[in-house]
Amino acid sequence: MHSDNAAPPTSIQIQGYSQHAKVEVREGEELTLTCVVPNARPAAQIVWYRANVEYKSNTIETKSAETEDHRYTATSKLQLQPTAEDDYIDYTCQARHQAIPEDRPMQSTVQLSVLYPPGVPYIEGYAPGEVIRRGQHVQLACRSRGGNPPAQLICKAVPPGPPIISGYTEGSIITVGTRQKIMCTSSGGNPLATLVWYKNDKKDEKAQKPPHHHHQPTQYAGTLYGRANFIGFSLLVSPFELFPSGHHPVTVWKKHRNDKR
């Protein structure tokens, strides 16, 4: 039975947000939701719900103030420090009053959107140390769990480093009869780069490839002998698809000892 002097509140609102609004907050940041229920007689009771379950906390502060015509405005503040578990969770404040029918509750709801980092990416379809043979078809999937917003995953192959020639100083002169050993090195990459020596734009089959282990740089050694008609020695790295420009030439010029230029 309702008192003749009882008057229901005129509205209910979580301040600053429309009904069913999304509230964006970073994980661990403090968030205060303020519920206001005005113009009730007597003052309305405010109850909070989390995901449709009554939420009781010592961080809830509720008070009421008298207004005109002996009516009251009730205010309740809920302080939160959201975690990833609060993402997409509804928080609702509900007004309880003797003049409000139980089958027509007066309430206001917002939904939290908690920004939090995704999990560390991992690869499915490959076990560490597993040997994959040339031509074998392997399907790999890069995944990362959680995160708001979800992680943007980028997969890329690791090309080898640019070729480096050692054993020769640019601009130096190599005279006829001099024995000169130069080394080409390219580090990293999977698979390792194939290094090829070229002499006068022709592949030099005499270049030597020393033994190397999987984690050592790929190297080709070449021994040069000075000749008057030897004008260049260049390097080409393949496979071509790792380098859109096709090749990265490095040229060593040799000068005849009788050449007075």
UniProtKB/TrEMBL annotation:
Keywords: Disulfide bond, Membrane
Ig-like domain residues: 9-113, 163-203
Lineage: superkingdom: Eukaryota
InterPro entries, alphabetized: CD80_C2-set, Ig-like_dom, Ig-like_dom_sf, Ig-like_fold, Ig/MHC_CS, Ig_sub, Ig_sub2
Subcellular localization: Membrane
Topology class, membrane: Single-pass membrane protein
One Gene Ontology term, aspect cellular component: membrane
Protein name, as recorded: Ig-like domain-containing protein
